[in-house]
């Protein structure tokens, strides 16, 4: 796969794609982003991702971005130039970023606003090992020091960068974020725990980014008849969970078996985690097989997510 970038109406090799120094994304982290997974030319829950992208832009007062149909056209051209395989067995990641654009440096939002800087590119999907899937990963509790609009997928990620760094230094795979004693989510994932046969996860709202895969997990649990409780879980209760797992676009479901060096439950991947993970894979596979490629009327199709 070649690295091509869509940048403000142009398609450029990665090495030639550049933005000005006074782009507000560069100077103020004044922008948003989204990440999609594709199998071949078919994105997982395209409509859901595009809806979140638009709502995040609206949340920071950025307008004049492409419509969903325009995004489909842009991304189909980008997929063609990037040499993306159409095989559903070939997976990759799409990164999209929108900033407020270029303006003389000033904390005030410019009036009138500049044209947003819009970029997108495909990259290889991250690799997770069979051992991680089979035996689970470790997490480390870290303070949640983010702003209070976490439902906006903003590019200002320094708090989670530092939390993830601290977790890795502690020998963990991921940081478990804790605010006022409550587990909110992980540095780049949503988080779930299982107790007495039920799944618990933090409710939607400004303290978490409600992931697209989080929604698929909830769908999977309902299909399996597993009770789900969207409610705050104290860290002290999370430590007593029978099972735990993470969800994200790039990895779907990842079991968690260790928290701060101490096993969760038996220390093994639990039956509910295994069942939910398998059902999430099945839902995604069903939707992809029933879907259509970018550029082939994806937006008009009913198979674009909920």
TrEMBL record:
Signal peptide: none
Annotated GO CC locations: cytosol
Keyword Transferase belongs to the record: yes
Gene Ontology biological process terms, A to Z: amino acid biosynthetic process; carboxylic acid biosynthetic process
Cofactor(s) required, per the database record: pyridoxal 5'-phosphate
Record lineage: Bacteria, Candidatus Sumerlaeota, Candidatus Sumerlaeia, Candidatus Sumerlaeales, Candidatus Sumerlaeaceae
Similarity-based family: Belongs to the class-IV pyridoxal-phosphate-dependent aminotransferase family.
A GO molecular-function annotation: transaminase activity
Keywords, alphabetical: Aminotransferase, Pyridoxal phosphate, Transferase
Lineage: superkingdom: Bacteria
Name of protein: D-alanine aminotransferase
């Amino acid at each position: 796969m070649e690295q091509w970038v869509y940048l403000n109406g142009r398609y450029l090799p990665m090495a030639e794609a550049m933005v000005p120094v006074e782009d507000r994304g560069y100077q103020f982290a004044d922008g948003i982003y989204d990440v999609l997974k594709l199998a071949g030319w078919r994105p997982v829950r395209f409509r859901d991702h595009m809806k979140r992208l638009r709502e995040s832009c609206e949340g920071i007062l950025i307008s004049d971005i492409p419509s969903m149909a325009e995004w489909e056209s842009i991304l189909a051209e980008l997929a063609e130039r990037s040499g993306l395989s159409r095989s559903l067995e070939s997976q990759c990641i799409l990164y999209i970023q929108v900033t407020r654009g270029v303006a003389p440096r000033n904390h005030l939002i410019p009036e009138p606003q500049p044209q947003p800087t819009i970029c997108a590119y495909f990259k290889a999907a991250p690799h997770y090992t069979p051992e991680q899937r089979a035996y689970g990963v470790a997490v480390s509790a870290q303070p949640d020091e983010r702003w209070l609009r976490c439902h906006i997928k903003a590019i200002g990620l320094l708090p989670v960068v530092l939390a993830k760094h601290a977790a890795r230094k502690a020998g963990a795979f991921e940081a478990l974020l804790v605010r006022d004693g409550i587990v909110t989510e992980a540095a780049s994932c949503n988080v779930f725990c299982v107790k007495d046969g039920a799944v618990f996860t933090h409710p939607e709202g400004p303290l978490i980014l409600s992931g697209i895969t989080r929604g698929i997990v909830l769908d999977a649990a309902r299909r399996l008849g597993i009770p789900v409780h969207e409610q705050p879980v104290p860290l002290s209760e999370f430590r007593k969970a029978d099972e735990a797992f993470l969800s994200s676009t790039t990895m779907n479901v990842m079991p968690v078996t260790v928290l701060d060096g101490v096993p969760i439950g038996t220390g093994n991947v639990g039956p509910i985690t295994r069942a939910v993970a398998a059902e999430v894979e099945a839902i995604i596979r069903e939707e992809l097989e029933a879907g259509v490629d970018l550029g082939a009327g994806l937006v008009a199709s009913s198979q674009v997510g909920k």
